[in-house]
Design goal:
By secondary structure, the chain is α/β, with parallel strands linked by helices. The chain is built from 9 helices and 10 strands.
């Protein structure tokens, strides 16, 4: 008997520390048996989605980040191509992806990055998941780019902060998209070079976001606008806000899935 259920994609957008809200969203979707057949992630969305796809427990991940000194995962290096080197962040990514490849995971995952050499969006779906995530989170000028084949890869948010169109290209009938950047009440604070770079990327992506967010069937926007991109120490509040936003959309999600 053919499967009559529509194909559901979960799209997790970029947002640095605000992206920790994705953990809360995922918790609620799983708790309520919301089916999703693939995960599409950009930047922080790729990280959280990748951890989940590789089998990381969402509640252990929640607690680990809440009690973790995130500074230990950032190596400050000489600013040749980026201020932050690789070693500690790669250790974290390998740990939480269990060094799995895309072929090892049971739920299809697509990771969005940007190729500096061609200026094009790149969809990573082969090789080590940790390497794909490392490319997708490589904020230009902050993290060193990732060399892969004939490409030099940086943050997926440069070209596609909320990759709804990638989900459609993968055959999704229903797209549940989670945006943690352009929610209401956003507070812009410029205190250092990281804030300058991330805010600049946000501004460049706003017009693209306005177009693609309309193509999502359900848009979840946790109210995390008052948090800075560096507020990793606020993980408890961010995860809880993700849960709250997802719970408020459950009725709409069920309606969309059952409608087709």
């Amino acid at each position: 008997m053919p499967n009559s259920r529509p194909k559901v994609a979960l799209v997790l957008g970029a947002g640095s520390a605000r992206g920790l809200a994705h953990i809360g969203v995922l918790q609620v979707l799983v708790e309520n048996n919301i089916p999703f057949d693939c995960i599409i992630g950009s930047s922080m969305g790729a990280m959280i989605g990748g951890f989940y796809a590789c089998g990381s427990d969402l509640y252990m991940l929640d607690k680990m980040i809440e009690h973790m000194d995130t500074n230990i995962f950032f190596d400050i290096g000489l600013p040749r191509t980026g201020f932050i080197a690789d070693k500690k962040i790669i250790t974290l990514l390998n740990l939480l992806t269990k060094k799995k490849t895309f072929e090892d995971i049971s739920i299809p995952l697509s990771v969005v990055a940007t190729d500096l050499l061609s200026g094009k969006k790149v969809i990573l779906e082969e090789g080590l998941v940790s390497e794909a995530i490392r490319a997708s989170i490589s904020i230009p000028g902050i993290f060193s780019p990732v060399k892969r084949d004939d490409m030099l890869l940086v943050d997926g948010a440069v070209l596609d902060r909320l990759p709804v169109e990638v989900a459609r290209s993968r055959g999704a009938d229903v797209v549940i998209a989670v945006d943690v950047t352009f929610c209401t009440g956003k507070n812009v604070a410029i205190n250092n070079i990281l804030d300058v770079i991330l805010t600049s990327i946000d501004i460049m992506q706003k017009q693209h976001f306005d177009l693609v967010q309309k193509k999502a069937d359900v848009l979840i926007q946790p109210e995390v606008g008052s948090f800075s991109s560096r507020s990793f120490e606020k993980s408890r509040e961010l995860v809880d806000l993700g849960r709250k936003a997802a719970e408020a959309k459950l009725g709409e999600i069920f309606q969309k899935i059952e409608k087709l």
